[in-house]
């Protein structure tokens, strides 16, 4: 029996040690694999452009504001398509294709792009400018989404599969309303707001859209649809009435012969038949192979600008907060703004805003940092993307000049707060609360009862103060009388064209337009961008997300497993240094 336990214990220890060794080796090879994968993915190796090439732009995935190497790697790890470009990458490639004599045209492969309307507008403008080079654009799809078609409509020739579809239906906005559900549950939302048009609270206190909200949505949707139909009308040589008639016909249900008859497409063919058309576009014979080059490959052939003069390009993308790891993180933004103000090589600032808003407090902190930057005398411009609303407008309003696209959504100068009252729902389930407080409002933060009049009035006064501060910042920044500013505020949302007429923005244009304005004001001609805030590299994020686990310490006959783990990890990280300090631990 003693021998049995001895053998069993030996076998257990041996198996345990083998498990530890396997875990350590697996851990090491996993990190090495991630490092190799990340390095391979992020390699920006230069390629040469062959004669008679076509720039092939695959319109699928998401067009984002900033490159996200980490997101692309994770998408590939999850066997998802990683074709995701930034707007600037696509625009840069299109501009380069116009200048490069080896590029004979552009081929748009339309597979369902996901992009904001302002991003699509800017990309379409770049394609329109490309056509001034006298080079042609061809597009093809089995199924054109409405966004795809808006971009493809600028093409010289639009082709579709014989069994394909094309969606053109117009714009609409639908919102869920939860008041009926909340009433059934016994939940009351106590709302405090300023702004007749501030509609974010409506789903919690109404069962349908308010007349004010209908008015503003009808206005900006009509303006944006007008911009879209105007672009298609000009490119396809059709009237706007014709386009609206086709949109009303539910084009996605129509046969391709109907699409061709009504000039929405130019040709019907299978994808393999398209190759010969693209070869003719490239100046190749039927026996030649097509030479496609991707936007990233073409961009890698361009020599980067090297200049002592820099313009800070500050990305304000996402919701404004101070707690999340995503969006516009106030502390990171403020640090970047202060760094830009102190850097003598940085001659000006362009802030690219793509934000629906967020924390009022954090918006004020970012605004204050930007005011500090302005005291340096360096020019500061804002380029608005798809959204620059509420807090997104707050941080923009102090700029020396504001640029927006016609389809940008902006304004929403208003403020609100919501506090739930769960008293009725707790009673429904048989739970009651009694509270003892030292002061009359000791239970102010309780959600288990309705606020009393004094508490509710105090909350409304705080929201009112926030609104007065917000509107005063906007009025001062826009050099506008406060009464005039308030007459177009009230939480109302505006499209870029309307915002220009009202004085909320100064000019219609892109990041390029804003940069050229800043450069001119700074008295410089050559410059390079200093991109801010810095992003955490992809490898660091992967290590943090996938390999950060609890470290357990084991000791067998004085053999400390923790020491072995840390020794291997430290050697590995010394060999493959990463940009940020990362705690890497192992769970056995």
Structural account:
The chain is globular and about 90 Å long. Helix content is 45%, strand content 20%. With 588 residues, the chain is α/β, with parallel strands linked by helices. The chain starts with a helix and ends in a 13-residue tail after the last helix. Residues 1-13, 37-43, 78-82, 546-566 and 575-588 have low confidence and may be disordered.
Helical segment count: 22
Number of beta strands: 21
Can you say what the CATH homologous superfamily of the domain at 53-169 and 250-300 is?
2-enoyl-CoA Hydratase, Chain A, domain 1
Largest sheet: 8 strands, mixed
CATH topology of the domain at 53-169 and 250-300: 2-enoyl-CoA Hydratase, Chain A, domain 1
Structural class: alpha/beta
CATH class division of the domain at 53-169 and 250-300: Alpha Beta
Q: Quick check: average pLDDT?
A: 85
- The coarse overall form would be globular
Q: Could you give the distance between the termini?
A: 31 Å
Estimate percent helicity: 40-55%
Radius of gyration: 29 Å
CATH architectural category of the domain at 53-169 and 250-300: Alpha-Beta Complex
**Uncertain spans, ≥5 residues at pLDDT below 50?**
1-13, 37-43, 78-82, 546-566, 575-588
User: Which percent range describes the beta-strand content?
Assistant: 15-25%
């Amino acid at each position: 029996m003693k021998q049995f336990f001895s053998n069993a214990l030996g076998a257990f220890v041996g198996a345990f040690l083998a498990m530890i060794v396997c875990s350590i080796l697996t851990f090491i090879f996993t990190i090495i694999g991630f490092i190799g994968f990340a390095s391979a993915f992020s390699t920006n190796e230069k390629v040469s452009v062959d004669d008679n090439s076509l720039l092939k732009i695959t319109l699928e995935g998401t067009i984002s504001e900033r490159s996200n190497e980490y997101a692309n790697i994770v998408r590939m790890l999850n066997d998802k398509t990683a074709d995701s470009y930034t707007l600037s990458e696509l625009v840069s490639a299109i501009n380069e294709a116009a200048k490069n004599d080896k590029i004979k045209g552009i081929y748009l492969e339309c597979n369902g792009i996901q992009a904001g309307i302002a991003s699509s507008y800017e990309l379409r403008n770049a394609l329109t400018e490309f056509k001034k080079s006298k080079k042609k654009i061809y597009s093809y799809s089995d199924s054109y989404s409405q966004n795809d078609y808006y971009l493809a409509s600028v093409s010289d020739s639009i082709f579709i599969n014989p069994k394909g579809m094309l969606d053109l239906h117009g714009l609409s906005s639908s919102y869920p309303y939860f008041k009926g559900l909340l009433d059934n549950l016994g939940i009351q939302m106590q709302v405090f707001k300023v702004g007749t048009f501030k509609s974010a609270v409506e789903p919690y206190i109404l069962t349908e859209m308010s007349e004010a909200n209908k008015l503003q949505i009808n206005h900006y949707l009509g303006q944006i649809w007008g911009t879209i139909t105007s672009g298609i009308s000009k490119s396809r040589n059709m009237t706007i009435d014709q386009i609206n008639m086709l949109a009303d016909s539910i084009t996605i249900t129509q046969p391709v012969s109907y699409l061709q008859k009504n000039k929405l497409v130019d040709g019907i063919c299978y994808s393999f038949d398209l190759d010969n058309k693209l070869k003719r576009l490239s100046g190749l014979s039927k026996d030649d192979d097509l030479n496609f080059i991707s936007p990233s490959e073409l961009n890698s052939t361009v020599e980067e600008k090297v200049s002592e003069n820099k313009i800070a390009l500050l990305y304000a993308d996402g919701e404004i907060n101070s707690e999340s790891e995503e969006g516009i993180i106030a502390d990171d933004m403020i640090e970047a703004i202060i760094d830009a103000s102190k850097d003598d090589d940085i001659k000006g600032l362009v802030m690219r805003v793509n934000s629906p808003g967020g924390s009022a407090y954090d918006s004020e902190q970012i605004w204050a940092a930007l005011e500090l930057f302005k005291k340096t005398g360096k020019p500061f411009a804002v380029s608005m993307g798809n959204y620059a609303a509420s807090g997104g407008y707050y941080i923009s309003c102090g700029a020396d000049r504001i640029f927006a696209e016609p389809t940008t959504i902006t304004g929403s100068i208003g403020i609100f707060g919501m506090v739930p009252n769960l008293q009725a729902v707790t009673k429904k389930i048989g739970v009651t609360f009694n509270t003892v407080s030292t002061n009359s409002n000791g239970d102010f933060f309780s959600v288990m009862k309705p606020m009393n009049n004094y508490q509710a009035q105090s909350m409304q006064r705080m929201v009112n103060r926030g609104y007065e501060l917000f509107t005063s910042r906007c009025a001062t920044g826009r050099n506008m009388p406060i009464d005039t500013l308030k007459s177009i505020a009230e939480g109302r949302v505006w499209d870029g064209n309307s915002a220009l007429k009202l004085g909320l923005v100064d000019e219609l244009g892109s990041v390029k337009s804003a940069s050229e304005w800043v450069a001119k004001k700074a008295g410089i001609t050559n410059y390079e961008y200093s991109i801010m805030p810095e992003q955490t590299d992809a490898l660091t994020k992967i290590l943090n997300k996938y390999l950060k686990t609890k470290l357990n310490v084991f000791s067998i006959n004085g053999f400390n497993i923790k020491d072995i783990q840390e020794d291997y990890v430290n050697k590995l990280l010394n060999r493959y240094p990463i940009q940020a300090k990362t705690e890497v631990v192992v769970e056995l």
